[in-house]
């Protein structure tokens, strides 16, 4: 975190101004609270387009294809943090981050957990939102949100076990040259997406 970040405990109006600025979009939120990742370079126009897409709840399915190193995962993680902090009261997120291997998904949700735990600016402006469950594979927030790390083809515990459907499932590099070598394996992954991922989502019908 940039040591020059302005945390003025005696200026309520300044606090409100910062929160209003952070609420503008994912880029602004990232520049204020995730400076190590968002202040390295000037955002490109497509970053703002992706920001708008990630915050548009009317977009139920999105396919984002960009080359490596173009901040896809960073923007998605920032969007998840944004929603955890700025969602209206009563709106809870139940999200799964799915990667080729569960260990890769764990790394992504650990990023989110680390910022919730030790980011001084987030803790000052929003308070501690850690929930009762806090493991490397799954965590909850004090608002009732739940985030789970999964690997390709794993079961997605949802409606039948928890009485819930996922609000979001992020499929991030869930296919590779290693798990798609044979026609059979490609078919298995396709069937998993259609029979497990799709039905687990809200508004899947």
Can you walk through the features of this model?
- With 205 residues, the protein is of the alpha/beta class.
- The protein contains 9 helices and 5 strands, in the order αααααβααβββαβα.
- Strand 3 and strand 4 form a beta hairpin.
- Helix 2 packs across helix 5, helix 4 crosses helix 5 and helix 5 crosses helix 6.
Kindly summarize this structure in a few lines.
By secondary structure, the chain is of the alpha/beta class. It is 46% helix and 12% strand. It has helices at residues 12-22, 26-33, 35-38, 45-55, 72-86, 102-118, 120-126, 159-162, 183-200; strands spanning 94-99, 130-134, 138-141, 146-151, 168-171.
Overall geometry comes to: globular
Number of helices: 9
**Structural class label:** alpha/beta
Overall pLDDT level? 85
Secondary-structure element string: HHHHHEHHEEEHEH
Q: Measure the end-to-end span.
A: 43 Å
Strand order in space, largest sheet: 2-3-4-1-5
Uncertain runs: 1-5
For the secondary structure, the number of strands is 5
Profile the largest sheet: 5 strands, mixed
Strand content: 5-15%
Radius of gyration: 18 Å
Helix content: 40-55%
Notable traits:
9 helices; 205 residues; five-stranded mixed sheet; 46% helix; alpha/beta; globular; 5 strands
């Amino acid at each position: 975190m940039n040591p020059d970040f302005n945390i003025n405990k005696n200026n309520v109006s300044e606090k409100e101004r910062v929160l209003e600025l952070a609420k503008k979009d994912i880029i602004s939120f990232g520049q204020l609270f995730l400076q190590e990742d968002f202040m390295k370079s000037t955002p490109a126009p497509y970053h703002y387009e992706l920001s708008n897409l990630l915050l548009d709840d009317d977009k139920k399915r999105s396919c984002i294809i960009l080359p490596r190193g173009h901040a896809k995962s960073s923007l998605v993680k920032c969007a998840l943090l944004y929603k955890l902090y700025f969602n209206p009261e009563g709106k809870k997120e139940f999200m799964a981050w799915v990667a080729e291997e569960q260990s890769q998904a764990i790394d992504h949700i650990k990023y989110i957990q680390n910022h919730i735990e030790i980011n001084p600016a987030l803790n000052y402006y929003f308070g501690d939102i850690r929930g009762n469950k806090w493991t490397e594979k799954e965590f909850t927030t004090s608002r009732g949100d739940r985030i789970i790390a999964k690997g390709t083809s794993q079961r997605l515990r949802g409606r039948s076990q928890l009485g819930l459907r996922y609000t979001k499932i992020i499929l991030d590099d869930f296919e590779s040259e290693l798990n798609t070598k044979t026609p059979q394996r490609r078919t298995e992954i396709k069937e998993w997406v259609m029979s497990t991922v799709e039905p687990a989502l809200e508004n899947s019908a």
